[in-house]
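Researcher: I'd like a structural prediction for the single chain below. Treat it as a standalone chain; there are no partners to consider.
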Amino acid sequence: MRQVAILFARADSVYKTMPGCDTWDIERDARLWPGGAPVVAHPPCRAWGQLRHMANPIPGERHLATWSVRQVRAWGGVLEHPAQSRLWPRAGLPAPGCFDKHGGWTLGIHQNWFGHRAAKATLLYIVGCEPRDIPTMPFILGEAEATCGTSGRRKSLKRKTSRPEISKAEREHTPHQLAEWLVDLARRCHVQGAAQ
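Model: Treating it as a single chain, here is the predicted structure.
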């Protein structure tokens, strides 16, 4: 089984329970990862997301996303960020369905396809695996049972038809099915010149 490096995982990440995953959380400090394997990168997104104007990132946190892009390009794998992430224009990442000069491409998904309670629109930047070679992807039509919310503002609408909001922790967790899919995808990624 080909080992995959998981960069910027939560301390309680599902990846820590999965075989063949070298998981780097805040304790291990992913910036110390020596390379040598395809990656699944989950860099902090609060400084890049739709609500970045309300975020309070720690010094240097914003740089972790661009560092992660370089690791994915060097070793192959996938970077995951919210669909509204400003990382895409800042790092010159391609629009969904397009390729960049590094052979990387972007795929848009909804995490409820993989078991998340909210739709959670997400972009994946993939290097080293052609679109035809990705693992089989689930696809679900219709609304998700919950929303990602915006710090309780939906609750103030007091509409009986609104769906419940998920918690901050639930927004940050990667569903097990998605984690398995991302690891499978990373194992299929091969970059010329990278260690195999």
